[in-house]
Amino acid sequence: MQQHRIIVLGAGYTGAIAAGRLAKQLHREDVAITLVNAEPDFVERVRLHQLAVGQELTPRPFSEMFAGTGVELKLARVTAVDADRRTVTVEGANGAEELAYDTLVYALGSGWNTQGVPGTAEHAHEISSRPGALRLRERLAALEAGQSVVVVGGGLTGLEAATEIAEARPDLDVALAARGGLGDWLSDKGRAHVRKVFAGLGITAYEHTAVTAVEADHVTTADGKTIPAAVTVWTTGFAVHPIARATTLEVAENGQIMVDETMRSVSHPDVYAVGDAALAMGPGDKPLRMSCASGTPMAWQAADAIAARLTGGKLPKTPLRYFNQCISLGRRDGLIQYVTADDRSVSAALTGRLAARYKELICKGAAWGVANPKLGIPTRPRRVLRTPVGATA
């Protein structure tokens, strides 16, 4: 029997987990699993704010993470997907190459979202990618005492970036501009703690402030005011990778691939999408937010569903729900905001050093899970059926 060709695009948390989990479940003689990624090692995206302030992250080469698993790593950049012909075009060291697949796992994720604000692409820095974090690291290192840094965006990434920079560089004038109130989605306890940390680190919070333009040395707000900014860090959400929108896959308005409860494309049954690339519904029929907390169970669900359909097993049901939001506030402080299944804050929250240690364990656990994707799966790999269940439906 010809090997079933599985191609996984993108080796962030979700793509790497999916590839490893598939390799654990399927007999190596029956499948050829190829993981396509532009970089040779795993990037801990949830730690990029640490990288930006000069901290060194633990190297995690894929050659070690996938040693002995049968997963083939192809170092290349994805340039096109033809979902009708079942092919992927990639650009690697040897030029362009077309790869054919039987099953595709699309996990190209997301990057920063400029929101179309003038000057952002030219003058602002992003920390949604390692190259971006390294560019910001170089720029911050060149700043002299007293110079200003403005973080635009009051979500999780913005809070983490502002506090990390202020803690690492107490000699800088750090500010954060948020469209709403500071931590306005958090519980009373959570909001109070964020304000306390900001005050302790000397961070200025510009609340209910929309930034409408970015210049080399300042940002302009909707009311016409200017805020000095030798460096602007842009953290106003994520934009999905544009390739899916250029295919015949059915996508949402924002370019995310529409999937069913097994992370299978609603228009192309041989394509699965996970992480930020997919529009999946969670409790309360609410779309899952772009986050590692969403992506990991999505990767489990997709890999297990693919394995079940190929081997005639029972389709899995991974709970797609939330438990908490873990926010680092520098290296010595943090906030664990407990939430409902559909991600609404409840009154309970963990703060301080204990929360910082909790967040650190979560980050380490996420990286460990990429290298050890075997939670809840059979110990022995299963054989692929000659005619996989639901192969085309």
TrEMBL record:
<keyword id="KW-0274">FAD</keyword>
<keyword id="KW-0285">Flavoprotein</keyword>
<keyword id="KW-0560">Oxidoreductase</keyword>
<dbReference type="GO" id="GO:0003955">
    <property type="term" value="F:NAD(P)H dehydrogenase (quinone) activity"/>
</dbReference>
<feature type="domain" description="FAD/NAD(P)-binding">
    <location>
        <begin position="5"/>
        <end position="303"/>
    </location>
</feature>
<dbReference type="InterPro" id="IPR023753">
    <property type="entry name" value="FAD/NAD-binding_dom"/>
</dbReference>
<comment type="similarity">
    <text>Belongs to the NADH dehydrogenase family.</text>
</comment>
<dbReference type="InterPro" id="IPR036188">
    <property type="entry name" value="FAD/NAD-bd_sf"/>
</dbReference>
<protein>
    <submittedName>
        <fullName>Oxidoreductase</fullName>
    </submittedName>
</protein>
<dbReference type="InterPro" id="IPR051169">
    <property type="entry name" value="NADH-Q_oxidoreductase"/>
</dbReference>
<dbReference type="GO" id="GO:0019646">
    <property type="term" value="P:aerobic electron transport chain"/>
</dbReference>
<dbReference type="Pfam" id="PF07992">
    <property type="entry name" value="Pyr_redox_2"/>
</dbReference>
